[in-house]
Amino acid sequence: MPRPSFACVHCGHSAPKRLGRCPACGEWNCFEPDAAPPSDPAGWGVARERARPLAEVPQSAEERFSSGSLELDRVLGGGFVRGSAVLVGGDPGVGKSTLLLQAANRVAEAGGTVLYLTGEESAAQVAMRGRRVGARSPRLLVATGTSLPGFAAEVAAHGPDLVVVDSIQTVAVPEVPSIPGSLAQVRECAARLTAAAKTGRHALALIGHVTKEGSVAGPRTLEHLVDAVLYLEGDRVQDYRLLRGVKNRFGSTGEVGIFEMTAGGLADVGNPSRYFLSRTANALPGVAVTPALVGTRTILVDVQALTARSGFGTPARRATGVDATRLAVLLAVLEKRAGLHVSGEDVFVATAGGVRLEEPSADLAVALAVASAFLDRPFPRDTAVAGEIGLGGEIRPCGPMEGRVEEAARLGFRRILVPAPGPRAGSGIEVVPVATVDEALERLEPRRTE
Ligand SMILES: Nc1ncnc2c1ncn2[C@@H]1O[C@H](COP(=O)(O)OP(=O)(O)OP(=O)(O)O)[C@@H](O)[C@H]1O
Ligand SMILES: [Mg+2]
After folding, report:
1. Which atom of ligand 1 is nearest to the CA of 98?
2. How far apart are CA 384 and CA 263, in angstroms?
3. If we measure between CA atoms, which residue out of 375, 396, 376 comes closest to residue 386?
4. 66: pLDDT confidence band, cut at 50, 70 and 90?
5. Is the CB of residue 348 less than 8 Å from the CB of residue 279?
6. Does the Cβ of 263 fall within 6 Å of ligand 1?
7. pLDDT score at 47
8. Is the fold of 63-270 the same as that of 275-441?
9. What distance in Å separates the CA atoms of residue 347 and residue 353, rounded to the nearest whole number?
10. Where does residue 339 fall: left (phi above 0), alpha (psi -120 to 50 degrees), or beta otherwise?
11. 152, 186, 288, 432: which could join 365 in a potential S-S bond, CB 3.0 to 4.6 Å?
């Protein structure tokens, strides 16, 4: 079989010739020559060390150092690891450079030497961002350019503790004929950079762009080369950002870091429940609160709804943070099982901060927010709710409730509605099992105008 010499820049699918359309991912005109042989970072073919019993191999103490951000450290599994590579992906403009420039500065302020290598922006642009986030450490060094060998010389000269490459799609080695960002270049550069991190004992952070399909642009193979893959997510209109770990050889992958984009950069959101709650002194119609699982963390989130008599034609339904199809189902359940005639209403539902609620346990909060708005009867502000709603209007169990009950109690809620039978009462909070939507609706307060 001939050696594949072309590869899709999106998914890495190899082919012996340039194909018009990639059979693997369906993209058009995406094949690039992939002729360059990969470098030999592992010294393959040269016996460097004989095999020996695993039990006799001395353990190297995993050398970690803090990124200076509790949220980033949490997702990294306790901080950057020397000799390892982490890939930070995310949509354009989401804040990848900001996150890593801040981390770079904090590492430098803590006494480390940091090299920030950028092929994306000029040094002046990085300096401008640096001023914005208050990066002033003299040990934070910036180099601009796109030549990887040029950067390698800087790394050798300074012996840094942390190297940030912004972004992996802009650097290139001259031996590979294709352009920066192509599969061959990205793979080669990443392989050389990770090998250099292993020998140089520094931690390496690579920034990578994400394609519209959601994978780090260029090669999917990049994810295999690095030790950890983190994705920074968030709506550019909303201020909060979630950093999710999707792969981590040195820590758990369920972790989520929560940040707020401010004028001074990304700030840790230390108490996310408070951030996603818009608690007012008085209960307002159209609001219900649910403890939602974001990564491994339970966070209390406000669900807000507004209903208004539709003018004409098909009523409008808009959902932010809640799945639109799920909303349609819940509206049908309210109409049929609870007798609320919402079918002729425009319905708007949004979560505070636009945080995405992906679990079925958010159903009850959505239904109660809509019902509360429609009936103009507030839902008690001291009560949180969690439960999946079945098509018969029954409240179904949806996973363990203990963490949710605890978080609601911690935030000062006095009561929580949960699917029957529900956990035993949490400390300092009344746990009320409910079997149907009707039962939950009975908790709505009277109209304030009455
Ligand atoms: N003064 C400011 N106040 C608040 N937010 C700001 C301010 N300046 C920039 N931002 C935010 O920072 C974002 C840009 O951050 P950054 O350049 O780190 O993103 P990026 O992911 O590196 O983008 P790219 O993909 O273009 O490299 C903007 O989209 C905006 O949300
Ligand atoms: Mg950037």
Report:
1. 18
2. 33
3. 396
4. very high
5. no
6. yes
7. 46
8. no
9. 18
10. left
11. 288
For ligand 1, mutation pick of 91, 98, 131 (most atoms within 8 Å of CB): 98
The per-residue pLDDT for range 396-430, each reduced to its tens digit, is 998 888 889 988 988 889 999 999 887 776 678 99
Q: Note every long-range contact of 335-340, with CB atoms under 8 Å and residues 24 or more positions apart, other chains counting.
A: 336/393, 337/392, 337/393, 337/436, 337/437, 337/438, 338/371, 338/393, 338/437, 338/438, 338/441, 340/371, 340/374, 340/375
Tens of pLDDT, residue by residue over 278-334, are 766 677 899 999 999 887 788 899 999 999 998 878 899 999 999 999 999 999 999
Sorted by where each begins, the domain ranges of the chain are: 1-35, 63-270, 275-441
- Tell me the CA–centroid distance for residue 167 and ligand 2, in Å: 7
- What region does 90 belong to: left with phi over 0, alpha with psi -120 to 50, or beta? left
AA letter at 106: R
Average pLDDT estimate for 235-246:
81
Positive or negative: CA dihedral 78, 81, 84, 86 = positive
Helix %, strand %, coil % of the chain (to 5) = 25, 25, 45
Residues with CB under 5 A from ligand 2 (ion): 97
Q: Does ligand 1 have an atom closer than 6 angstroms to the CB of 237? A: no
SS3 58: coil
Q: Are 33 and 5 in contact (CB under 8 A)?
A: yes
Distance CA 182, CA 164 (A): 20
166 CA to middle of ligand 2, Å? 7
Q: What is the pLDDT of residue 49?
A: 52
CATH fold for domain 275-441: Ribosomal Protein S5; domain 2 (3.30.230)
3-state secondary structure of 396: strand
CA–centroid distance, 139 to ligand 1, in Å, is: 23
Q: What's the pLDDT score for residue 363? A: 96
Give the DSSP H/E element, type plus range, for residue 33: strand 31-33
pLDDT of 48 above 70:
no
128-187 pLDDT, tens digit per residue, is 999 999 999 999 999 999 999 989 999 999 999 999 999 899 999 999 998 888 888 888
Q: Taking the chain, what is the end-to-end CA distance rounded to the nearest angstrom? A: 82
Between CA 5 and CA 186 the distance in angstroms is: 16
Domain 63-270, CATH 3.40.50.2300 — does that match? Answer: no
* Predicted pLDDT of residue 21: 80
Question: What global pTM score does this model have?
Answer: 0.76
